[in-house]
């Protein structure tokens, strides 16, 4: 349909776009609608087929047995969940402190510091975390004559911290570099030393920038704490994965593993939602 407007004595004629018909007489929009409807229909058909073929009584008995789940409480909370939180918190604390040091070394004008930080980051980001756990439990006693202090908490925290520091260092470095240079220049003009400006002005702003990725790193460390099952730990030191695995073997049922997974989700889902909300808030603040 044509539309005419009088502008400055001239007539401008514009034509509304007409969607070309695709071969077969269907417009592109209609074909997209049919394709989307077909995908929804296929998904629904697969769900219905699985629901009809599944042996729900057997699945309920082996994966959601109420009696087995009831016997897990309160130990799965007071032992498994508590130890998971403790291991994660210790590992995150070590990783954050060490990551800050490595990030500052990465930005240092002293070349050996930069080299050391670069090598550390590449090594611990490239090694499997399980190998780091094995090194902490086997290599540290051989090298120093005694295991890492703190028992399972110390060993797990050190392994998680060494690995997490490599990732946190790069995150913190990016946050420091994201702080405008004018902040440092303004602080120096007020008579602050370079170290004082970094600790009082730059680093606090950098941490506000990197809180969302650090929260994601906390979620990863929480899941990685499950590798403690490869350590020689006593019953009271078990975290969720070790707790669920041991109980599943004892009762011959996978319900303890499912309950342990739900406990992990209780920790990780709120942290993931928090990280996404913080990221969204930062995006709105930059507009």
From TrEMBL:
<feature type="transmembrane region" description="Helical">
    <location>
        <begin position="255"/>
        <end position="275"/>
    </location>
</feature>
<dbReference type="InterPro" id="IPR000515">
    <property type="entry name" value="MetI-like"/>
</dbReference>
<dbReference type="InterPro" id="IPR010065">
    <property type="entry name" value="AA_ABC_transptr_permease_3TM"/>
</dbReference>
<feature type="transmembrane region" description="Helical">
    <location>
        <begin position="34"/>
        <end position="54"/>
    </location>
</feature>
<dbReference type="Pfam" id="PF00528">
    <property type="entry name" value="BPD_transp_1"/>
</dbReference>
<keyword id="KW-1003">Cell membrane</keyword>
<dbReference type="GO" id="GO:0022857">
    <property type="term" value="F:transmembrane transporter activity"/>
</dbReference>
<keyword id="KW-0472">Membrane</keyword>
<keyword id="KW-0029">Amino-acid transport</keyword>
<feature type="domain" description="ABC transmembrane type-1">
    <location>
        <begin position="81"/>
        <end position="275"/>
    </location>
</feature>
<comment type="similarity">
    <text>Belongs to the binding-protein-dependent transport system permease family.</text>
</comment>
<feature type="transmembrane region" description="Helical">
    <location>
        <begin position="85"/>
        <end position="105"/>
    </location>
</feature>
<dbReference type="GO" id="GO:0006865">
    <property type="term" value="P:amino acid transport"/>
</dbReference>
<keyword id="KW-0812">Transmembrane</keyword>
<keyword id="KW-0813">Transport</keyword>
<feature type="transmembrane region" description="Helical">
    <location>
        <begin position="126"/>
        <end position="144"/>
    </location>
</feature>
<keyword id="KW-1133">Transmembrane helix</keyword>
<dbReference type="InterPro" id="IPR043429">
    <property type="entry name" value="ArtM/GltK/GlnP/TcyL/YhdX-like"/>
</dbReference>
<dbReference type="InterPro" id="IPR035906">
    <property type="entry name" value="MetI-like_sf"/>
</dbReference>
<dbReference type="GO" id="GO:0043190">
    <property type="term" value="C:ATP-binding cassette (ABC) transporter complex"/>
</dbReference>
<protein>
    <submittedName>
        <fullName>Amino acid ABC transporter permease</fullName>
    </submittedName>
</protein>
